[in-house]
Amino acid sequence: MQIKPRQMLPLMILLVCVGSLLGAERKVLLSTRVATNGEFLTVPVVVAGRQYTFVVDTGSTATVLDSKFLNSLSLPDKEGPVIPVREGKQSKLYTAPPMKVVGTESGELLFPIDSPVLCLDLADLLDGGSDKEIDGVLGMDFLQKFAVKLDLTAGRMQILDSDSVTADETETAIPLEFANGTPRVLVESSDARFWSIVDTGALPTLCIRSDVHNYLLEQGTLTPWRFEVEVEGDKRVGIIGIGSLASFKLGPFEHNGLTADEAERGTLLGLAYWKRYQVTFDFPHKTALLRPSRYFRMIDETGHSGIFLKAVDESPNQKEVGQIVLGCFAERAGIKIGDRVLSINGNSVENMPIDNMNRRLSQRWHKECVLMLERDGESFAITLPRLKEMPAADDPGE
Question: pTM of the entire structure?
Answer without folding.
Answer: 0.83
